[in-house]
Amino acid sequence: MKAIWNNCILADSNDTVVVDGNHYFTQDSVKTEHLQPSDHSSTCPWKGTAKYWNVVVDGEVNENAAWSYPKTKEAALHIQGRVAFWKGVEVVE
User: Fold this and answer.
1) Surface-to-core class of residue 11, CB atoms within 10 Å of its CB (0-12 exposed, 13-18 middle, 19+ buried)
2) How many CA atoms lie within 13 A of 70 on its CB side?
3) Mind giving me the DSSP string for the chain?
4) What is the pTM of this model?
5) Cα(34)–Cα(24) distance, rounded to whole angstroms?
6) Staple 50 to which of 7, 60, 62, 67, CB 3.0 to 4.6 Å?
7) What is the pLDDT of residues 19-41, one digit of tens each?
8) Is 22 left (phi over 0), alpha (psi -120 to 50) or beta?
9) Are 26 and 43 in contact (CB under 8 A)?
10) Phi and psi dihedrals of 81, rounded to 5?
11) Do 36 and 60 meet the contact criterion of CB atoms below 8 Å apart?
12) Contact criterion met (CB below 8 Å) for 64 and 5
């Protein structure tokens, strides 16, 4: 699977986990040079608290377009530390 935004591959991996329709990529498959930390967070009752990043490609910013759960609740341990994308980031095979 590949995560792509603005013609840039943000992540590329054969090892993703799909939860609620979102592919969660391993951290080592994500090009972190395109991620800038965000102050945004959200809480899921069964996954825990998510932290977000802004995706930046060629000077364009897609705010809060990537997230992960650094410490999940028990039911979501299989995605702990993995990174998912949304807000126009395409995930394709």
Assistant:
1) buried
2) 5
3) -EEEETTEEEEE-S-EEEETTEEEEPGGGB-GGGEEEEEEEEEETTTEEEEEEEEEETTEEEEEEEEE-SSB-GGGGGGTT-EEE-TT-EEE-
4) 0.96
5) 17
6) 67
7) 999 999 999 999 999 999 999 99
8) beta
9) no
10) 80, -10
11) no
12) no
